[in-house]
Amino acid sequence: MSGRKETVLDLAKFVDKGVQVKLTGGGQVTGTLKVYDQLLNLVLDGAVESVRDHDDPLKTSDQTRVHGLIVCRGTAVMLVSPTDGTEEIANPFVQPEAVCRGTAVMLVSPTDGTEEIANPFVQPEAVKEQHYCLDKF
């Protein structure tokens, strides 16, 4: 048993390899992991920061800042992932927006255009006038 404390993450396999680090507050830095400690303090070389979009702070813009050698404080580190073998994909959970137009619903999909369908929540007049008696049950 060694005297060195174990870290929450096994970062030894990422030393001298490219990593992407997401920080609290929305910061995102990419660089080569040089050193880390048990508190998850990281030293990145060739660090490049992705600049946040001024209009929508949840998105990153195409602008970057080159910082060189930086230290990421462990309490600010939320995620560490390798840069090799990763790619960005479309969000599969985005639902098309529904726009009500009277007795029909217009489905607006960012990729498929629009398609009009009957509104399943509007009852025909004949069904509205029927009354059900629950006293029989």
TrEMBL record:
It comes from the Eukaryota. GO terms for cellular component: catalytic step 2 spliceosome; Lsm1-7-Pat1 complex; spliceosomal tri-snRNP complex; U12-type spliceosomal complex; U2-type prespliceosome; U6 snRNP. The keyword Nucleus applies. GO terms for molecular function: RNA binding. InterPro entries: Lsm7 (IPR017132), Lsm7/SmG-like (IPR044641), LSM_dom_sf (IPR010920), Sm (IPR047575), Sm_dom_euk/arc (IPR001163). Gene3D superfamilies: 2.30.30.100. PANTHER family: SMALL NUCLEAR RIBONUCLEOPROTEIN (PTHR10553), U6 SNRNA-ASSOCIATED SM-LIKE PROTEIN LSM7 (PTHR10553:SF5). This is Sm domain-containing protein. The lineage of its organism: Eukaryota, Viridiplantae, Streptophyta, Embryophyta, Tracheophyta.
